[in-house]
Amino acid sequence: MFEVNFKEKVDEIILGHNSDKKKIISIIQEVQREYHYLPEEVLVYIADTLDITHSKIYGIATFYENFSLQEKGENIIKICDGTACHVRDSIPILQAIYKELDLNDKKNTTDDMKFTVETVSCLGACGLAPVITINDVVYPKVTPESVVKLLKNIKMEATV
User: Fold this and answer.
1) pTM given for the model
2) Which long-range contacts (CB under 8 A, 24 or more apart) does 97-102 make?
3) What is the predicted pLDDT for the residue at 2?
4) Residue 160: band (very low, low, confident or very high) from pLDDT cuts 50, 70, 90
5) What does the pLDDT average to over 2-24?
6) The CATH number of 75-159 is which of 3.30.1360.30, 3.40.50.1100, 3.40.50.300, 3.40.30.10?
7) How far apart are the C-alpha atoms of 26 and 66, rounded to whole Å?
8) Are 108 and 116 in contact (CB under 8 A)?
9) What CATH number does domain 7-63 carry, 1.10.10, 1.10.357, 1.10.3470, 1.10.260?
């Protein structure tokens, strides 16, 4: 979660990369791992600290698909809708996820910030289709029923 007093943590990340502006991608990757997205205030602070333009850091943050300027949940669910997954019925799986988490194609993060759902073009595991990942862990040959069970287990673990 993003905190207002972020400067100490961000300074630590920047110093960990020797304040080298050539390592800007690595720096913002680490910031995103910390906060699950790239808060605007942090990007501005990094740009000012490293003496690079705001437009340059925003250009980097918006160019790469893995960077997000929007806050994401604690658990990132990626569902593949590439050809192999699509023909093996990835859409009913997505619909089951949406229903279980009370989400839709316009709202992809739960109110409690526990889950974010993203549809991706390919997860590179076509032979295991249909595939989802949760926090980069691959779940092969999922069904609507198995994904609901998986989500319920994750919710239960979070309350323990």
Assistant:
1) 0.75
2) 97/132, 97/147, 97/148, 97/151, 100/147, 100/148, 100/151, 100/152, 101/151
3) 56
4) low
5) 89
6) 3.40.30.10
7) 12
8) yes
9) 1.10.10
